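Side project, low priority. Logging it here so it doesn't get lost.
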Amino acid sequence: MERQTIGHDEGMLFIYDAPDDRFFWMRDTYVSLDIIFVSEMLQVVYIARDTEPLTETRHWSRGPAQYVVEVAAGFSERHGITPGTRITWRKHTE
């Protein structure tokens, strides 16, 4: 990611062609994140909360995920997002 900051309501969406077991790590990431793994049915599979920056610890999806959302640490708790939550997103335009 190599960003020094992330806004409290900003995130990055990773879209894959098909669901699969996924892992993300925090190498080259300077801020703590919540990593939200999402199924093809747009249901949260697992959340790696408050990840430690600049580490190579692998955060696994714990089930097939077609989408992964990285948001600022604490976002999922503030918004009541838990495994099983159905989510939607919209493109941000300025």
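Brief comment: Helices lie at 75-78.
Revisit when time allows.
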